[in-house]
Amino acid sequence: MGMNEQEFPVLGMSCANCARAVERALQGVAGVRQARVDLTREIVRVEHDPERIRFSELSRAVERAGYHLLPPDAVQAEAARQAAVRREKLRLTVGAALAVPLALIAMTRDFALTTALEHPAWVWLMAALATPVQFWVGADHYRVAWRSLRLRAAGMDLLVALGSSAAYLSSLLSLLWPSRLHPMFEAGAMIIVLVRLGKFLEARARGAASAALREMMEFLPRRALRLNEAGEPQEVDAAELRPGDRVIVRPGERLPADGQILEGVSSLDESPLTGESAPVDRQAGERVFAGSVNGPGSLTVRVEAVGEQARLGQIARRLAEAQGSRAPIQRLADRVAAWFVPIIAGVAVITFAAWTAAGAAEEGLVRAVAVLVVACPCALGLATPVAMTAAMGRGAELGILFRRAESLEVLAKVDLLFTDKTGTLTLGRPRLREIVAWACPETEALRLAAALEVHSNHPLAAAVVAAARERHLEIPEAEEVREEAGRGISGRVNGARVELWRAGLDRDDAALPASARALLDSGATVISLVLDSRPCALLGLGDTLNPSAKEALRRLSRLGIETRILTGDRAPAARAVAEELHLPFEAGLLPAQKEERVRARRAAGRTVAMLGDGINDGLALAAADVGMALGAGTDLAKEAAEVTVAERDLAAVARATQLSRAALRVVRQNLFWAFFYNLLLVPLAAGVLAPISGLPDWLRHLHPALAASAMSLSSLTVVGNALRLRRFRSPGA
What we know:
- It is elongated, with a radius of gyration of 33 Å.
- Among the domains are: 4-72, Alpha-Beta Plaits; 222-253 and 257-265 and 279-305, Distorted Sandwich (Calcium-transporting ATPase, cytoplasmic transduction domain A), CATH 2.70.150; 426-545, Calcium-transporting ATPase, cytoplasmic domain N, CATH 3.40.1110.
- α7 runs parallel beside α26, α8 (210-218) packs antiparallel against α10 (311-325) and α14 (405-411) crosses α24 (651-686).
- The chain has 26 helices and 26 strands.
- The strands form five sheets. A seven-stranded mixed beta sheet has the order 14-26-25-24-15-22-23, sandwiched between helices. Strands 6-5-7-13-8-11 form a six-stranded antiparallel beta sheet, with no helix packed on it. Strands 16-21-20-19-18-17 form a six-stranded antiparallel beta sheet.
- The longest helix has 37 residues, at 74-110.
- The two termini are 63 Å apart.
- The protein is α+β, with helices and mostly antiparallel strands.
């Protein structure tokens, strides 16, 4: 029986150890050939025999490993993810509500601010407050710690479990021997709450890459008008279409499948797929693609490819592969914990053994607990997520949306920016740029053209009418107006025969003035105006340059970032924009070719960002080290990208880069302070200064309560440092 590969969402994974645990659990099920986890998208691809294995068996195997496998239903998976975030928020809220009063009681008691808390009942109250924090709020740490022990891969959760458990258990012993041991329930509770805060912030910053694929496929129409055997049109679900079917595509509708035109002539907007700025004329015999928008003519199309086999579906599949192949950045805290945990555990054991050998077993227990508490890397766990969250919040205020925290780190290292042209460097809408008139006045040529174009819904027609109105020209009435899809429009104006054709004139015609030939060679979209069968003027239309482009490119250059244009548009149109902005360019590129250019530069050692706004940019956005999309672009582009900048403000690209570099500096500072506290206080907690007389008692005998306070102080230090990013201002803005 053949094998089947399916993708299943998985909840609860946070690191490479989690991924290995899920893969091992599934590969242990009879009938599963292979299981591969994609941490970025939080899914697992399982190759299995569907005749032998049911979903319930796979789910049970993953549940035994400590994770939750969801059925391959996007809506249900997203609902489950949202429910998990809500549960995490509830646990964090409850934990903070219990830990804060617990810490206040402990501080008041330990620093003798009042004698009212000396009664033993207060210790029992502290135990009551700490217990749910330890075993309900911190339950995940125990589960992950147990899994990491089974995998022989110590992580930060193991150290959190050790430190908080040591504080809690020694505090329970203090209830039995209050004269020998000091209660420090607050230490374990604060350890758990602070680390959970870091994980909660991290979870909120992480996006779901699968949303990009849902948005892409929703770009296709849900219904189609299929011709039956009798040639009668019937509306059907687009998913029912098969190769060989004939469909009618009416004006303004999106094509439901790839195919070949059998009948009809029209102009199609293929910009989401190709990046072409102007509608493309199509007629019988030519190929058309799903997702394109039909213009004024009705088309009969023979279906050749649908769903995943269509060009749009192929882009979606390659996009998923590209995103899945990009491994998530491994947090430094996890890497450090791999060697930090066993070292700290060893130091705690040696501390207890050394003091016991010296005849002070009780002192050894207290100091061993102090070592575990002070070494608990709360600051290490907060250093990155708090800084990244602060930067992402500030970015939102500046019109920059980061999809996940890792995007900040990668963007800070970018040295090459590839950018699309249409809708990015330009506004993606045609505008009348030049009129060359030789047989009639320029103003009269525009009035006559607008008289006809006001009757058309073509984008070029709208640009001509808008230009006439901007000049406050009176647009005359036209009669006998007739539009020919893909060619142009004609009619009578003030008794004269007026024609507008989008077919170019012969540039070698001796009757054309030199200025007309120059316009034909400029790369502009040219409309010829014919008056009573005699050409009399040319109207040149082109895309409008983004007003923020020049300043944004200057700022990127000052940041040391090289910028190049990759576009699917025609070379003449691309050259006009590239020369105006002084940028190198490549034109006429298909989505896969854009992706190839990006991958080639990455393979050459460059750190590449891709800026785009359409479906045709999706593959390149996913292939880049960091993809950037404009907020005014398609939903797919925004979902495929790691960074989205507001509307069409290209200056936000430079601001995003400056913010990412500032965030990376803060993270490095935070990591330094986190290590500084841990490495400095561990020897003090172990008692290396105890034999030295003349030093203050608090320094010679670092109590677990002081160790917990120092641990909290390190967390406050990194949080305060991170919050400076909320006041970030872009230099040169």
